[in-house]
Amino acid sequence: MKVTIIGSGMVGASTAYRLVEEGAVSEVVLLDIIEGMPQGKGLDMLESTPILRSDVKIVGSNDYSDMEGSDIVVNTAGIPRKPGMTRLDLLKTNVGICRSVTEHIVKHAPDSMILMVSNPLDVMTYAAWKLSGFETCKVFGMAGVLDAARYKTFIAMELRVSVEDISAILMGGHGDSMTPLPRFTTVSGIPITQLISQERIDAIVERTRGGGGEIVSLLKNSSAYYAPSAAVADMVGSIVRDRRRVMPVCAHLNGEYGFEEIYLGVPVILGRNGVEKVIELDLTDEEKNELDGSVKEVLSGIKDLSEEDLL
């Protein structure tokens, strides 16, 4: 399979390198509008392939036509929120970038899947779906895998156990309104509610919700890229190997959980055909209320999109 990554910044470049290192795809195209950057990073990665024993072909380019024949296009293009920017400012800027990128995807890779990484994630994924006209199963976003990884990390730190033994799921929008589900979180099958006090669980949930902001506050002038790129590579691996893994993914809802015409983080089966099924969990009233709050926040962002944004 051929994968194109739009944006050669830290997330895009790290994702490209992970795919080259894992060797699950045949070709990676790293695209960016900055001349020389994707070419330089691509060549550097290519020169690492003999050491990695990887035969993945990687090309750095400024030409969108190089994405032709791509099976998956990962869109990391966008800007982070800057001092003085409102949420609406960020949305309008990044939806404009999303529109431009999606036009190129439709033109050069009309049979591909679109995996969105740009923020605000849930709204950007909705915009990419509307702008592309692709099937809903072929447009989805990365956030849940990243958020679940942070959640598992903090649980492992709390219990001093291997992250490998932790299974967790969360739902909702990517950000402060995400909904971790302790009831569905286990350590080797043991519910964490039997291992961790409710007070500590609440603290872990809050840290998970602010996980991205915590890293930004430490780095000052940058945001996370190691964990996000690992999450994208994990999703790509499930698709290209047709592993049909159950993952929390930003997916289109058409009546599931009582919501329609929205993209939201939910557990899905992710395989060769993209989002092959949305899994509906039987939520408690408290969990439903938390999810409703998250939905309201995502819908608020969608409502901020004008018809011009989606033309």
In words, what does this structure look like?
It is globular, with a radius of gyration of 19 Å. Helix 1 runs parallel beside helix 2 and helix 6 packs across helix 9. With 311 residues, the protein is α/β, with parallel strands linked by helices. Strands 3-2-1-4-5-6 form a six-stranded parallel sheet, sandwiched between helices. Strands 7-10-11 form a three-stranded antiparallel sheet, with helices on one face. The chain is built from ten helices and 14 strands. Helices cover 42% and strands 20% of the residues. The protein folds into two domains: 140 residues, NAD(P)-binding Rossmann-like Domain (Rossmann fold, 3-Layer(aba) Sandwich); 160 residues, Lactate dehydrogenase/glycoside hydrolase, family 4, C-terminal (L-2-Hydroxyisocaproate Dehydrogenase, Chain A, domain 2, Alpha-Beta Complex).
Show the helix and strand layout.
Layout: E1 2-6, H1 10-22, E2 27-31, H2 37-46, H3 49-52, E3 57-61, E4 72-75, H4 87-108, E5 113-116, H5 121-132, E6 139-141, H6 144-159, E7 166-167, E8 170-171, E9 179-180, E10 186-187, E11 190-191, H7 198-209, H8 211-219, H9 226-240, E12 245-254, E13 260-271, E14 274-278, H10 285-303
Parallel strand pairs: 1-2, 1-4, 2-3, 4-5, 5-6
Antiparallel strand pairs: 7-10, 8-9, 10-11, 12-13, 13-14
Helix pairs in contact: 1-2, 1-9, 4-5, 5-10, 6-7, 6-9
List the keywords.
311 residues; alpha/beta; Rossmann fold; L-2-Hydroxyisocaproate Dehydrogenase, Chain A, domain 2; six-stranded parallel sheet; three-stranded antiparallel sheet; 20% strand
